[in-house]
Structures are given as structure tokens and as C-alpha cells.
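Exam revision sheet. Question 4 asks you to relate a sequence to its structure. Input first:
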Amino acid sequence: MHPDAWLVVVDPQRIFADGASQWGSPMFPDIVEPVRRLAAAAGERTVVTRWVPAEDPQGSWAAYLEAWPFAAVPEDDPLLEVVPELADLGSEVVSLPTFGKWGYALQAVTGPTPHLVLAGVSTDCCVISTALAAADAGATITVVTDACAGSTPENHRAAMDVMALYPPQITLATTDEVLAT
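Answer key, C-alpha cells:
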């Protein structure tokens, strides 16, 4: 992994990993090992993000949480915890009430135009939202194809196809390819 890159593990939380959750990804178990390999290479340059609902959701977020009431829980609810098998990654955790995690909180850790290596869940929601916003702001993005889990395999592929339209700002690579650089 390039020594200047930051690994951002997007939302590895129970709400997205648990097959019994309405938002659980069937692909999540398959990304644990690739994410751990990437984090071992990135070391202290690993950031974990968490989706948390806003205390007082505004605009479309109010309607969104009305549609998904099971997710309208306090930030410290066990449903929003990082899964145990990835809880020891990195020293930085960024919790935000947005799909995309690119913004001031993540920039405070990585700088304004970093190279981000993205992994996590859900490819077709939080990962793509983070990638597009960060690339638009000038960051260089590598999305790790086998370290991201979509809501379904079909949605994962569709999101990867969209992100593949943004070279050179966004590139797609496997874990092995990222670790070889």
C-alpha cells in the first residue's frame, strides 16, 4: 500500500453486517479478511467511519428515518457498534449522520486532498457517496473491490461500474493490487 495513502473503512457496523438487520449485507463476511490485511499495511493511517442517525434529523433525513424506524437509535446503541472482528482497526473513528463520510471530520484526519483507499459497506450507498464527494473535492480515491460489500452482489457491481467512470480520480483495485503498490 502506498505509504501516503489513508485506509478508510466505511461503516463496518453491526447494522450493516448482521444478516438479521434490514440493512445487513450478505457480502459482509467476505470482506473482513481483506479489510484486516489492508489495515495491517496502513497501520496508524487507518480511519474507521460510523453512520449514526442525527439527534434531530432535518429535511429528507426525517422522512428516511421514518421509513427505517429500526435505525433511529442513540449513537451508543449496540446496533451501531463496529463489529468485533474489525473493532481494533486504527485509532481514528469518524461518526457522521450522513451516507458519505467525506467532509470536515475526515479531512481533519487525512488532510484536504489525500489519497484514500476505501473499503467497507455498503458499496452502493456509503462507499459510493464517500468516493464521489471526496473525488469531487480533489482527493485521489482507490476503491478496493474485494474489500467492499454491497446491499446485494448486483448493487455492489452497479456501484463499482459507476465509480469506474471517474478515472483518474477514482480507480478500482483488488486488495492484492493495493498491497503491491
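Marking note for examiners. The first strand starts at residue 5 and ends at 10.
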